[in-house]
Specification:
single chain; 129 residues; mainly beta; Elongation Factor Tu (Ef-tu), domain 3; eight-stranded antiparallel beta sheet; 3% helix; globular
């Protein structure tokens, strides 16, 4: 089983790499509806519609054009690359809307930024060409 160090992770927005990335999480969910008939001893379900969300953490950098595109309400295309951006590495890609952004500043720390994304349409799981 292959494992990967987090430092290999990359995220792109519209083809531009996000600078100062410190982490990301991509969550997928799928609705189900119950179709159990009377008299059945066990419940059964049918797959419904799916969605994905993402959270992206970075060190705040107002000069980074990729970070500059991540503004509330923006509809963008994304690629999340947990293994890096080399040929054959896994790639999770899709479109989504920026639903929120927070900036954190502390007395003795690095200024940070966290962005929330709501997927719009499907999340494609493939590999880097």
């Amino acid at each position: 089983m292959a494992t990967h160090h987090g430092k290999e992770g990359v995220m792109t927005v519209g083809g531009s790499t996000i600078g100062n990335l410190t982490g990301f999480t991509v969550d997928t969910t799928h609705d189900v509806v119950e179709d159990t008939a009377l008299g059945d001893s066990m419940k059964s379900f049918l797959a419904g519609r799916g969605t994905f969300t993402a959270s992206v953490d970075m060190n705040y950098d107002e000069t980074d054009s990729g970070q500059g595109a991540l503004v509330q309400g923006a509809s963008l295309t994304f690629a999340f690359l947990p293994e890096g951006n080399d040929s054959g590495d896994q790639k999770l890609s899709g479109s989504g809307i920026i639903t929120g952004m927070s900036v954190g500043v502390s007395l003795d720390g690095v200024s940070t930024r966290t962005v929330s994304i709501q997927g719009s349409g499907g999340l494609t799981i493939g590999t880097v060409a």
